[in-house]
């Protein structure tokens, strides 16, 4: 009979037992001969031992728990990171034990009792057998039996690892002086278990003060590091430092300085950092996405003057669709004369595999630059059943993003079809102001990250316009947009009609082409009817003074390169 069976009724403390050596070795033998039996969540190990003549299979210990030993897989998805999710129960589990010390926590017979008689079903869920497990007995041995603490009782055995991960988290947090909590440390060890395993394998790293500094560095300073290589590099370098001095005995400021020095060296090594945007001690190649509108123009000029501490970018890149109004091209020529850094103009035809031609020419040909029989402009559509829609917008990616990215890849030496060099990164400045903060987004390219200087500085579009008016009172600052961009507001259509009638007439012509030229109609709307104006009225017939102005649809262009 199990000695602790009676303890689960009417007692506030529940005894924790340990297997007898005879029971432990019998279960090992049973596992070797009947490994498939371990996959049964309802197996009765007391019956197994009874059949083998082992009746008194457990002995008492001085350890109790405040509640029955239990961990739950409820709500934990069975994915490859199941154990990471499950480890988040560790703190409650850890605090339920009374009298458990690190010395007790290396008793494999104690953990074997808990794993077999209290957590077997849980262990099957957390350490479920995958197709990659070829030897079932080895799988069982690793997760239900541990011969000694040197074999890593804190690594595999479900019950022991759960206790140890919480113990290390509490130990680190207590020694940190409030720098982080046990829950924050546990989150690091759960999501990135390599950090936990590495610390457990280096005994010197378990010294409370040094442990707290390592965990603090991981939380604060090592974002983006490669879990496997980076943490072992850190502990290896600290181990070397400990060969010349007992670093764990140093005053905290000096100890922290040593840890920070080692972290800085690791985070400066591209081979040890998985997120290239986090690599330190290198100057990124800075590129300003120049739309030649209000925001990017003023940002470019502020950087030229060094205002607000802005450094000059290495280059400003203007993606030319070939269909901007003359005022934008004239403004771009003037702006280029004001800047001491390089201004580059790119177009879709620069991208290998893209056909030559402007966006206007492609519309009339009923194609896209990469040869697709569709037009990716966000025209306003009326379907045959009277319902309304907006055509899918791909013009930004095809005519702006793709040529910009192709150019920037070339600038950092990234060959076509290959990953960019690990030590190269591009910082792309986007001219988006605080009133359009929701247009922020991360770069899709691994070799680049987006930066929003105007948002960092808290500057609005109105403030930018005021800055430009004060510094260049004799100049008009246009808004960058294609002549026939459907995202134009009524005020912008009105301005074009009055101040640039030639461009407006061209937009009217393209608007008619969407409905009257078969190849154009089929490419964008097929059986539906398309318009450039959001009222879904022919552009030539729109009275902009009578039209209610709508919300600015340009802010939906979240790539950050149009309308800025």
Give an account of the 3D structure.
The chain is an alpha/beta fold and 564 residues long. The chain folds into 2 domains: 144 residues, no CATH class; 272 residues, Rossmann fold. It has 22 helices and 11 strands. The strands form 3 sheets. The chain has a 5-stranded parallel β-sheet, covered by helices on one side. A 3-stranded antiparallel β-sheet has the order 1-2-3. Helix 8 packs across helix 11, helix 11 packs across helix 13 and helix 14 crosses helix 19. The N terminus is likely disordered.
Précis, in short:
By secondary structure, the chain is of the alpha/beta class. It has helices at residues 21-33, 45-51, 82-86, 90-95, 108-117, 120-126, 136-144, 158-175, 182-191, 193-201, 208-220, 227-242, 252-267, 294-305, 326-338, 359-365, 395-411, 453-457, 461-471, 490-499, 501-516, 518-524, and strands at 14-19, 58-65, 97-98, 285-289, 315-319, 342-346, 380-382, 388-390, 426-429, 448-451, 529-531.
CATH class of the largest domain: Alpha Beta
State the helical fraction. Answer: 40-55%
- Total domains: 2
The rounded distance between the terminal residues' Cα atoms is 78 Å
Extended strand count:
11
Main beta-sheet annotation = 5 strands, parallel
The total count of helices amounts to: 22
Strand order of the largest sheet: 6-5-4-9-10
CATH architecture classification name of the largest domain:
3-Layer(aba) Sandwich
Reported by name, the CATH topology of the largest domain is Rossmann fold
If you average the pLDDT, what whole number results?
A: 87
| Alpha-beta content class | alpha/beta
Q: Gyration radius, to the nearest Å?
A: 33 Å
Shape type: elongated
């Amino acid at each position: 009979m199990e000695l602790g069976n009676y303890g689960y009724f009417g007692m506030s403390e529940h005894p924790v037992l340990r297997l007898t050596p005879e029971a432990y070795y019998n279960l090992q033998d049973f596992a070797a001969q009947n490994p498939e039996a371990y996959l049964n969540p309802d197996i009765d190990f007391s019956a197994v031992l009874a059949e083998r003549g082992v009746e008194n299979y457990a002995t008492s210990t001085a350890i109790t728990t405040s509640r029955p030993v239990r961990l739950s897989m409820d709500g934990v998805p069975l994915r490859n990171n199941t154990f990471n999710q499950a480890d988040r129960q560790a703190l409650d589990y850890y605090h339920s034990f009374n009298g458990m010390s690190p010395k007790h926590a290396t008793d494999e017979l104690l953990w074997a009792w808990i794993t077999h008689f209290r957590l077997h079903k849980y262990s099957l869920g957390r350490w479920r057998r995958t197709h990659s497990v070829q030897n079932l007995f080895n799988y069982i041995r690793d997760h239900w039996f541990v011969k000694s603490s040197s074999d890593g009782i804190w690594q595999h055995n479900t019950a022991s690892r759960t206790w140890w991960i919480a113990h290390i988290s509490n130990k680190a947090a207590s020694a940190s002086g409030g720098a982080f909590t046990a829950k924050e440390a546990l989150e690091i060890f759960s999501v990135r278990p390599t950090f936990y395993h590495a610390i457990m394998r280096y005994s010197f790293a378990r010294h409370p003060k040094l442990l707290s500094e390592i965990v603090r560095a991981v939380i604060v300073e090592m974002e983006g590091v490669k879990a496997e290589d980076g943490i072992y590099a850190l502990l290896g370098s600290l181990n070397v430092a400990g060969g010349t001095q007992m670093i764990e005995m140093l005053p905290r400021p000096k100890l922290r300085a040593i840890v920070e020095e080692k972290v800085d060296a690791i985070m400066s090594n591209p081979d040890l950092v998985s997120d290239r945007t986090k690599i330190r001690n290198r100057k990124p190649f800075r590129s300003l996405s120049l739309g030649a509108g209000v925001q990017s123009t003023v940002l470019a000029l502020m950087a030229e003057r060094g205002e607000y501490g802005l450094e000059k970018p290495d280059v400003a890149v203007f993606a030319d669709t070939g269909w901007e109004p003359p005022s934008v091209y004239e403004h771009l020529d003037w702006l280029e004369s004001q800047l001491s850094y390089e201004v580059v103009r790119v177009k879709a035809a620069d991208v290998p595999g893209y056909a030559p031609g402007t966006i206007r020419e492609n519309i009339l040909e009923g194609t896209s630059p990469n040869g697709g029989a569709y037009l990716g402009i966000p025209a306003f559509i009326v379907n045959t059943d009277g319902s309304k829609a907006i055509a899918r917008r791909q013009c930004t990616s095809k005519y702006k993003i793709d040529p910009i990215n192709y150019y920037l890849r070339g600038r950092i030496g990234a060959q076509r079809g290959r990953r960019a060099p690990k030590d190269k990164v591009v910082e792309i400045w986007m001219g988006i102001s605080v009133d359009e903060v929701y247009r922020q987004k991360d770069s899709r390219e691994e070799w680049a990250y987006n930066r929003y200087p105007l948002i960092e500085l808290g500057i609005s579009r109105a403030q930018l316009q005021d800055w430009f008016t004060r510094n260049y009172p004799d100049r008009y600052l246009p808004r960058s947009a294609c002549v026939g961009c459907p995202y134009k507001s009524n005020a912008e259509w009105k301005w074009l009609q009055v101040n640039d009638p030639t461009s407006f007439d061209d937009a009217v012509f393209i608007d008619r082409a969407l409905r009257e030229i078969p190849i154009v109609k089929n490419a964008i709307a097929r059986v539906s009817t398309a318009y450039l104006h959001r009222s879904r009225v022919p552009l030539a017939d729109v009275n902009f003074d009578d039209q209610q102005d709508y919300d600015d649809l340009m802010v939906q262009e979240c790539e950050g390169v149009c309308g800025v």
